[in-house]
Amino acid sequence: MEAVVVFRIDRRSGVATYLQIVRQVEQALRMGALEVGDRLPTAAQVAADTKVNPNTTLKAYRELERAGLAEVRQGAGTFVTRSLAPERTASESPLRAQLAEWLNEARSQGLGGQDVLALFESVHAAVYPGGTDG
Q1: pTM exceeds cut of 0.70
Q2: CA dist., res. 44 & res. 25, Å (int)
Q3: With CB atoms 3.0 to 4.6 Å apart as the test, which of 17, 34, 82, 85 could cross-link to 28 if both were Cys?
């Protein structure tokens, strides 16, 4: 099955483009948007959608393969081999419920979507300095 993944590249983020692709795939795996067996878009498709060099996508896919999250099948494409989703579904997660509650509160206080993203990124950077998972 071919997964629908829409990559968003932020050229001002200071994060290498290939790492942005890797992180977006990892996030899709955590959220259950990508599942084992799903086919990732081709490097040419990603290049056309994001205006990045196809080699950048290939570098990201090699990194995913190295991490054991995807495999390249010659002539067939790149496929997800492992999920990062928690055992319970994302919709059942207490953290998801708390986040939805928080977002509703932020909206009721007049924060727009971009304001919320900026606030999240600021707090995320403080909790995960350097973008690390540790």
Answers
A1: no
A2: 17
A3: 34
